[in-house]
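Question thread 4412

I'm putting together a teaching handout and wanted feedback from people who do this every day. The idea is simple: show students a protein as raw sequence, then show them the structure tokens that encode its fold, then repeat with a second protein so they can compare. Below is the first pair exactly as I plan to print it.
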Amino acid sequence: MWKKGKRFIQPIAHVKMMAIIQPLLSGGISKTVNLPNEASIEDIKNIYIEAWKLGLKSISIYRDGSKTIQALYSKIEELFSKEKKLEKRRLPPERKSITHKFRVGNQEGYIHVGLFEDGKPGEIFVTISKQGSTLAGLMDGVAILTSVALQYGVPLKDLVSKFINTRFEPSGWTENKEIPVATSILDYIFKWLAFKFLSKEELEEIGLTKKEKHEKKKEKAEVNDTGVSCYICGNLMIRAGTCFVCVVCGATSGCS
């Protein structure tokens, strides 16, 4: 007796069901008799003979696993018994960390990164000078979500690709030679993480390249995919002849 799970029908039972209905029909019945993978040639032969004896006009047989790709999958237990559970990678009670001070426009803050034993980031804390503000609360939330994602195995490269180039205030020029302009605090944080922990190949995949040095202050107006940023306040600048002028604070890029 072949048995697959708690609810099953023997191959011969398929044949008998068709035999009951066949006298009521003028044509053949389209019904597949399913056999397990271990069915022998003799088993298949007996099915055909029994179908002939019962007066069936047609019959089709399928042996489980006889095709590389099949619609029917009899080993249901394998689909549900091997559910993958996410495992959280925990940091040691005492861990190495990195603290980085940053400035975006007029906003100062600190990024604290806790490291796993292999030196990869496992937790992030962001502290900014405006504690108790909406911005500080949002930064705390982003840091917690990022920490949880890293501990459950989300690649840092994927997180960076989602958060860089986000634009909101405060934005503007920074004191970091690798990131002279940031379109937001999130943009700065995740670009810094990328340059600190990602390989050159990973940086290229998400479109980031390291900058060797600051440009001269008079040439600090930078054209990027979001426009021309003021090096003082971070707002968009407008062209005035060969110069860029900020209509908010009056800064100019200098004329070429």
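The second pair follows. I'd like the answer to focus on this one:
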Amino acid sequence: MARRRVSMRKIREILRLHEECRLTNRQIAKALNISRPVVGQYLADLKASKLTYEEVTRMSDDELMRIFETKKAKESENYRILSQRFPYFAREIKKKGVTLYLLWQEYKKEYPEGYGYSRFCYHFQIERALSPLSMHIEHKAGEKMFVDYTGKKMRIYDKLSEKEIEVEVFVAILAASQITYAEATLSQRKDD
């Protein structure tokens, strides 16, 4: 059964309480409000990695995450096959109209014995989280708004003419709050 995800802060605290405070697994579980088997599994993973506590304290969160989250998955043949396709998935997901579900369906056609959709998404998101190319940008409230028309057109039904009309979709997003506004317009002209 898959382990419930625990934050990196809690993982580091599990290791600290075990090594520095010499608490039992039960005491650590109670202090951090997580189950005792989860504590035991993280400690067993640390022991299996043959890293010392001092080495772990000097590691970045990404390096530590690689030890705990992908250790077992990398051992399986399914993960090896899936991980070879990550660069392809990363390119494809950027294309218009491509979703994780479509990529998963393509993967399952090629590898019927592969992961189910939820595990596929989990591994893909872990891989994305470990990608070094990411940046968080802080925005001041009310300072910026991003606007554009979507690439795909939608259709609406006009009751008066009893015809379907192809419309453009205008989208605006406030940078700080991520509040989104969308509206269908007849064209992309300034008047609309």
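Top answer:
Good format. For the second protein you could add a caption like this: Residues 110 and 171 are 36 Å apart (CA to CA). Residues 1-68 form one domain.
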